[in-house]
Sequence to fold (196 residues):
Amino acid sequence: KDGRAILGGGRYENLVSEVGMLHTAHGRPLILLDLNCERNWVIGIHVSENQVYGVVINLHGNVQYQIGKAYTFDGPLKEVRETIKNVYNELQRFAGSRLKATALTVPGIIDTGSGTIIRSVNIPALSGTELRSLLPEKIAETVCFGESSRAKALAELWFGRGRNHDNFVTVDLGIGIDKDLDVHETAQLNVLENKY
Fold:
């Protein structure tokens, strides 16, 4: 049986590729799978007080392309939104058909049910803004969003220094000081499935 069939085909079929077989003394050989990094890339965008940073990474986390564009500190929502869209568009052009998902992080208090930024002290123009409206209107890939400090803590939990610890604290030093605790807490980013 084809190893990709394990994922049920469809949109997940190309996430893995067969890299070999392991023959055993009993039964069928085991099929070895690996993430298909050449065909599956992800965009990550982080909005800070006066700059939008973006990267394209493969499924192993290797950076394929990165960009940063500045906007006026405490600038209007239109300028912030335009800068985010410009960064996204450049990253999307680079990734092309390999693009599978986009993640957007912003500082502030987010209503995860509606995907709205309730309040952003660092970027006041974002207060009351629906996160999805910060990206171009029609996007084919899945969009994830999250609060910046929490996203940094999750990155440490999953890939960094928090990986081998049951509990840890991250402190985000920037324009303000923020913290994120993980005390046996379920880690999550919110996903907005596209209906376009």
User: Anything to note?
Assistant: Residues 181-196 have pLDDT under 50 and may be disordered. The radius of gyration is 19 Å. Helices lie at 77-95, 148-159.
